[in-house]
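User: Teach me something about this protein's shape.
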Amino acid sequence: MSKRLAATLGELKKSGYKPLSVKEEIRKNLICSLQKQENTFKGIVGYEETVIPDVERALLSKHNILFLGLRGQAKTRMARQMVDLLDEYIPVVYGSEINDDPLNPISRYAKDLIEEKGDETPIVWLHRSERYGEKLATPDVSVADLIGDIDPIKAANLKLHFADERVIHYGIIPRSNRGIFVINEIPDLQARIQVALFNILEEGDVQIRGFKLRMPLDILFVFTANPEDYTNRGSIVTPLKDRIESQILTHYPKTLETALTITEQEADLPAEQKDKVRVSDLIKRLIEQVPFEARSSELVDKKSGVSARLSISAFENAVSAAERRVIINKEKDTQVWISDMVGIIPSITGKIELVYEGEQEGPYQVAMNLLDKAIRAQFVNYFPNPESLKKKRGQQPADENPYRSIQAWFDKGNSLNLLFTTTDAEKIQQLYQVDGLHALVKKYFRGANEIEAALLMEFVLHGLASFSLISKKIVENRVEFKDLMGSMLNLGNTGSFSEDELEGDDFN
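Assistant: First, the predicted structure itself:
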């Protein structure tokens, strides 16, 4: 605070202070922000043309807001950032439990204090960070938690009747007066508790155990809900939904570039990890592709959604997998290899809800299939599409298949076993054993240095396996690459194949 603020009611009156309601205050500050062309919601990526304009319109209209969207769509984060649109400080009657405005008190305590002390009534200044209340709706939330209840101990100590307003212990909503109050997952709140919010939203009445108070609370309400909740766990009762003026739909990142920006912003990597581990753009894109594949998979429950937290935790796990390897091998630094991506499987299995068919397949196998699909989807952005070569079978000269020499090397009975803990030098040496692999990478990426070329060489092997041109099997501490036909004839020693592998119509 640059200047001394009023300490009494009299000083506040002399200062010319004009009180505003919370919604008017937010509207005023939002208008200033828009005029300056400032970013209203900092760090919220992908909503610039969709959700943020809707929220700004709702706040300009002084509306209570319902954010409706699947998990991991920044609903609560946006609600918390609305605090930045409040004035930095507001005056409050000293000792008031519900942040009474000195110029417009609503509680019995504040009214009595002002009547007793007049212009000498002490006031304090409340920072905007303290004007935010949040409650996660759970079935055990009661009216007393939200609104309040009679406190018999207070009544006994003050020797007051239960009908006296001063014996009330206020709940979290009245204590959020002149601020923002958020209820997360509102459908989980029991219907009878939702009913208790009706009058607060519309008329400002508070009823506690039949004792009716005329208490015009000044609150911006923000609710969040998952569309899944409307059928699986509960619903927002219609009269309450009718009193929430703006319902805003949120969504997942629409492009891979947006998803990349979010993960880069949110991933929490220790400084020593950043020093030891390099992460290529290829690896970042493969990780971001996984949730996109999951959201379109028939094995994943679309009603539950796939949180943006999946790619964030997957990115952190991939870097940690590389860090663990470099520590074990006592190397100075390394990069995230494609084989390190096995380390992101726990980040996938814990963040997807499976339909019945997915449960039958098993979360681990579904996660592995999603990773393979991500590799398959990204592979065609770097190298020729093997599918198009299959379709042109017999129509092109043998030398037009850029993968023929690689497949031929495996067809001769050769195999490649890449240990997850192998050193970078050993891995590069192994990759160079495959005929035509280095030549293929250099043909399409002439400017790649040795370590970049080696990563692309490993990517080619994983990509060809995802297109069923060679066989890939994950075995505890390593990944095995072999010829596909030989592996299919020896299923007892190789492991299961995905539907895509079994449907491959051309293995040469």
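Now, about its shape. The longest helix spans residues 309-328. The first strand starts at residue 65 and ends at 68. If you'd like, I can walk through any region in more detail.
User: That's plenty for now, thanks!
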